[in-house]
Amino acid sequence: MTKQTKLSVVFDVLSIKQAQVVRALAAKGIKFSTTSLSRLKTQNEWPKQCKRADIEQHIIDYLRAHGATDDHLMGLFGWNEPKPKHAQNSEEDEMLKAQLKPDTKKFFKIRRDPFNDEFECEGDFFLVDSHLQIIEELIAAARANSMVTLTGECGSGKSMIRRLFEHKVKEEFTEITVISPARINRKKITADGVSRAICRELGIKNLNNGEDRDEEISRTLIERSRSGHKHLLIVDQAQDLTPDLIRELKCVWETMDGFKRVIGIVLFGQPELRTKIQAHSMREFNMRVHDIRMPPLGLNAIDYMKHKFTRIGVDPAKIFTDDALSAIRGKCYGKVGKGIGFDDENQDQTYPLAINVWLAHTLNIAATIGVKHIDEKFVHKV
Fold first, then answer.
1. For the chain, does the N or the C end have fewer beta carbons within 10 angstroms?
2. 68: CB partners within 8 A, 6+ apart
3. In the 8-state DSSP scheme, what is residue 49?
4. CB 81: neighbour CB atoms within 10 A?
């Protein structure tokens, strides 16, 4: 990996252009060329003669005004030292990246965090036709004892769909027993852990011998199925499951009473799950599973942004112009290179998490520099 300066990393994170900083320094009466800033940013080299202390302070002040945190500014004029990678957080943990600073809430008179997804009722959820269709497909799969995966990018709304889906199943289809293994650390979920979770939900005595336990599970599922019960196994963050465990789940799903399946399975996961099950070694599973994909919000992104504020009693029109919301939506689009001989692809990343992050970032910067009403021009500078 190419070594980077901390300044270069912060510029990239905050989408800061060198020319912007050079102009800001010039406005303070400090001459510092774009070439000099480029060498500082890429090679950590200062000109032999310059007012280094003044330049450092003005750059720090400029970056802070544009959303830089204390972590961004620590060791700013040195080489970047990447932090060690930690285990991947859950989708709920990722949402914590979209945070308003206390001063921002005070400045805009926002009493509740619009990005806190503690939903109290169905009206708190923002649902479009594609979401409703996905929920209907999942319910149909649960009633038919099918095997389904719902895959989507981190922050695309899978957790929202899962919560609504589970709620509707438990409220409206009481004949379906929902089985969900512990969600503490999915990387440690094993076939043994799944079978024990099934035993807990079905009231089966916890047998230590795996073969005896599996036999008792099959017998109980069949008996309950004959009595009119249905069963649904739900696994969240399923991209962390091993191929062997996914194959074990298929074996559970293949438990039959005559020609009728006795359990359905729904796996929620990021695109890595799709990649995993498309491997040649997983073809038996891939041929039997129905993959549903979470779409971006697209043109519904603006209504989503308005919803985030109206649900907490804040009129978004008092903070943003409609053009500003359109500009924030535009921040979630980007070109993706497809290789030599292919045109770049315009990729739509208008997922709730990405939009939340851009909204929070824009509001934090606006509050820092005292902008009360955010327009399109301001958003383009963020």
1. N
2. 10, 14, 60
3. S
4. 9
Encode 292-341 in three state secondary structure.
EECCCCHHHHHHHHHHHHHCCCCCHHHCECHHHHHHHHHHCEEEECCCCC
pLDDT digit string, tens, across residues 144-197: 999 999 999 988 999 899 999 999 999 999 999 998 876 545 556 777 778 888
pLDDT tens digits for range 254-313:
999 988 999 999 999 999 999 999 999 999 899 999 999 999 999 999 999 999 999 999
Placement of tokens 């939506």 in the chain: 329
Residue 222 carries which side chain, given as an amino acid letter? I
Q: Residues 6 or more apart from 254 whose CB is under 8 A from it?
A: 261
Residue 95: both structure tokens together: 């949402």
* C-alpha 259, offset from chain centre: 39
Write the DSSP assignment of 175-191 as a string of letters: TEEEE----S-GGG--H
Q: How far apart are CA 317 and CA 326, in angstroms?
A: 13
The per-residue pLDDT for 263 is 94
What's the per-residue H, E or C state across 240-286? Answer: HCCHHHHHHHHHHHCCEECCEECCEEEEEECHHHHHHHCCHHHHHHH
**Mean pLDDT across the chain, nearest whole number?**
86
Over the Cα atoms of the chain, what is R_g? 26
Q: Environment class of residue 180 by beta-carbon count within 10 Å: exposed (0-12), middle (13-18) or buried (19+)?
A: middle
Phi, psi of 265, rounded to the nearest 5 degrees: -135, 135
Mode of pairing for the β-strands spanning 345-348 and 333-336 = antiparallel
Phi, psi dihedral angles at 169 (to 5 degrees): -60, -45
What does the block give as tokens for 226?
């004959």
> Would you say 266 and 283 are in contact if contact means Cβ atoms under 8 Å apart?
no
What's the rounded Cα separation, in Å, for the pair 13 and 73?
A: 12
Mean pLDDT value across residues 201-226? 85
Tell me, letter by letter, the H, E, C secondary structure of 144-155: CCCEEEEECCCC
Helices 6-14 and 52-65 cross at an angle (nearest 10°) of 30
Residue 5 CB-half CA count within 13 A: 16
